[in-house]
Amino acid sequence: MTLLAERPVRETAPAVPKRRKRSVLPYLLIAPTVLTTAYLLLYPLVRNVIISLQEFGLPQLVRGDARFVGLANYAKVLNDPEFWGVVRRTLVFTAINVVLIMVLSTLVALLLVRLGKWLRFLVMGGLVLTWATPIIAATTVFQWLFQSRLGVVNWALVALGFEEYRGYTWFADGDATFGILVALIVWQSVPFAALSLYAAMITVPQELYESARIDGAGALRVFTTITFPMLRAMFGLITCLEVIWVVKAFVQIWVISQGGPGRATTTLPVYAFQVAQSLQRYDLGAAVSMLMVLLLVLALLAYFRQLYRQEQEA
What we know:
Number of strands: 2
Structural class: mainly alpha
Radius of gyration: 29 Å
Strand order of the largest sheet: 1-2
Largest sheet: 2 strands, antiparallel
């Protein structure tokens, strides 16, 4: 027994875990999706960049002998005063739409939080139906609403005593057409933003709201000190998405006014299409579209930088 007790115990080294071989099957399964997405997104972008660096009009489209001219197309576009007028109009159009979308979406989301089960279900159903309405269908409805003789808007205004709107042609007035387009895009955009914000708001712990109400905080105080600070990143994300959505809006403007009357509703996507199709200068149209993408990227980067600074300070 003594010999057994004094016998040293051999320590066994821990087993080295075997390195698991990575299976290539998951990569093979997602490869078709990745390659298709890359082709559908990257190829048009690269092709557009190439065309913007070439002399590419109708003759080159037919013959296929486009030659590279470097940044000449960009210089021509940037030296055109009309381009800068379109940029200013696009910025104003975007700012008005995004502000209205975010304000109305926030109000609708706050309303959904406070509604009962069945009313909330009805409102959300209406939002989903509005969101699911095709763009062309919604645009056509707005055209009917503001039709000069048979439109519901003119009929309602005349019925309320505004006789000056009898037979009023909305789409012949630049400011009126601009306002109609703003109303259309806001109407189409609010459902997505409102439902997204509502989904984020219901994740905020209710204890925070109860504590704030016990301390006597009102609805505005609760929103500015609890809801918005906790959901700042979500508000930033929705704002960025809406900026992208508004800037690239083309179908609504083209169907209703084609950028008119005059140039009152010509934004950068419409201007790029007009230059490419009407003047058959596909190189200049590609340059305008690339400048639009560059301006959008710079604006979003500036916004994300500011958002990051606020997060760091918090």
